[in-house]
Specification:
This protein is α/β, with parallel strands linked by helices. It folds into four domains: 2-98 and 230-249, Rossmann fold, CATH 3.40.50; 106-224, Rossmann fold (3-Layer(aba) Sandwich); 283-445, CbiD-like (2-Layer Sandwich), CATH 3.30.2110.10; 452-613, no CATH class. 35% of the residues lie in helices and 20% in strands. It contains 21 helices and 28 strands. The strands form seven sheets. Strands 3-2-1-4-5-12 form a six-stranded parallel beta sheet, with helices on both faces. A six-stranded parallel beta sheet has the order 6-11-10-7-8-9, with helices on both faces. It is globular, with a radius of gyration of 31 Å.
Amino acid sequence: MILVLGGTTEGRAVVDVVDEAGTVYFYSTKSNLQQIEMVHGIRLTGAMDAVAMTAFCKEKEIRLIIDATHPFATLLHDTVETVSSELDIPVIRYERKFPPRDGQFIWCKDYTEAIYLLCRHNILHLLALTGVNTIAPLQPYWEKYDCWFRILDREESKRIVGKQGFPSDRIIYYKEEDNDVEKEKELIRSLQPDAILTKESGLTGNFTIKAEAARQMNIPLFVIQRPEIPGSFYKVYGEAGLRQQTDRLLPGFFPLRTGFTTGTCATAAVKAALLALLTCRKQTEIELSLPSGEFVCLPVSSTEITPEYARCTVVKEAGDDPDVTNHAEVIATVSLTISSFKHLPHVWMPIDDTRELILCAGEGIGTVTLPGLGLETGGPAINATPRKMILEEIRTVLDTSGYTVSGNILVILSVPDGEEIAKRTFNPKLGIEGGISIIGTSGIVRPFSHEAFVASIRKEMEVAKAMDCKHIVINSGAKSERFLKSSYPDLPLQAFIHYGNYIGETLQIASELQIPAITLGIMIGKAIKLAEGHMNTHSKKTVMNKQFLKDLASEAACPPDNIQEIEHITLARELWTLFPEKEYPYFYTLLKDKCYSHSKPLLPLSKLIICLIDEKGNSI
């Protein structure tokens, strides 16, 4: 069982992730002010001290705590650390994003230092944007100097103000939706304070809005630094990190595990090898940034260091996705002593004005031989996002490691079993020879990912277009494709593309790419769903509608007895027996026409042909 401590925007994000498991969990907030929708969560309200939280965790058999509370909730963080230590319960800290600390602002480690620095800078008129709970710690300042507090317009906040004895005429009430730079500037203009005091509350705490308003109004900004989170907490910065740590600390909570793309694994291997080369130290794990901006940590399975190069291996973990590259070794060799590489497919990428990255495809990584992939023909099959990730992590190491690297950097990526693995992928069809592709757009592998499937459809169609295919045949899978190839023997292999269940999205991609002609091959089960208007035919999205079939059969003037038999069929292909095509051709004509009427609007400028395929491979 999981206990989530929320009440913040981050708490909502955690709920979105944890709900996906379909397992009951607890969501606790100090008050009941936050409105939140949960599918499997049980809502708790009211603060818990260490004794109460310990008792609760024992009673409910809590095995993992996820702390998504405000960064300044120090008392709660201390309580969680105490309970975690006593009961040996791991804690994941779902951290919010913080912008880099600006040296133009005046940073204060706590409220005592803030008061000292305000006085030292002779701030006599202060606008405090630190919240109602900071009235008490700032009392030594506002008892002597002119001060306004802006707080949320809530009854609870008003009660706290009353207890603190702060002058009510110096309180400015606002609503959460009022946060924007122009309103902040308007408030500054009306009060004319000497300075603003705020907290380092992160992006979701509107820190950047307050900072930008202060910057534009040329007014000093004093900032209370966020407190340190206990070192025993596992920090994560987004969905991927949360899923990764939850899978590790509480195996089985999510029925399906997520994983990482080959692009993420390659980036981790490159960063680890560069660090190993610069520091002469073995790397066991490496932190890197995903395209979303969140950080994840991947294990490094082996490190080899020589005077000329360093080599690190990261083993691909695809979670529970049936990925053919799962458990493949992704190896990066990094050298600052540039040796021969021209025999390898490679690309030059600028690191900065004086240095370049030479990125090469070694053993098991393919070479691009056809246009349309957005990659250089003859170059390495390393996609745009992994290239960017690798380059950014190299820049990060060079900027932060303290080591001087004056020349170019050579990186050779390899996957020892890549050539054999590639035979089980679409690579031969895409014109990628000799190995796998290093791919990934999000950096994450989600089990049976809809996004990944649609992305592969787009990539295949882009290749077909680049090959000047004027006619593309889309089909649900290998069986229907085999039948359709006999009908279109002159079309190249790349003209046949699987849509799986994503008919609508495939047609939209064809429209965007302005493919002149599309043949949609479809078997009867999916045809029934499409004819009713369902552009995604997955069984989780829609099922065979028997009433729709009865209405269709009636419109086709089929015998009443046969129509009633529809109630007893369990598989769509039984319709071929119930309504033989030679006897009831209009039934299938109507079915095909309805498929066409729903599909054609997605292809306004293209010719569309619908081929209804029976179990023997005959096309109608």
